[in-house]
Design brief:
By secondary structure, the protein is mainly alpha-helical. It has three helices and two strands. A two-stranded parallel sheet has the order 1-2. The chain is elongated, with a radius of gyration of 19 Å. The N and C termini lie far apart (56 Å).
Amino acid sequence: MAGAGLDVTEEEMLLESMSVVMSDKISKNNLQQVLSFHMLRDRDDVVFTPHNAFNTVEAIERIVDTTIRNIKDFCDKN
């Protein structure tokens, strides 16, 4: 394999706040995951893309349509 393109990593939620990473309450396992993510991030043969696969015109239209349908269904039942 020449490289990898990644959209999601298991530990991305842990990286939202440095206070979580620096906390005394972070588990050894979670800290290992964060460190392995950083090791991957710095490699030239690994590319991370933003986690926004939902962000297309078609996906947004489906989300809006589903939301409207759910609201109508709820109103019809009450």
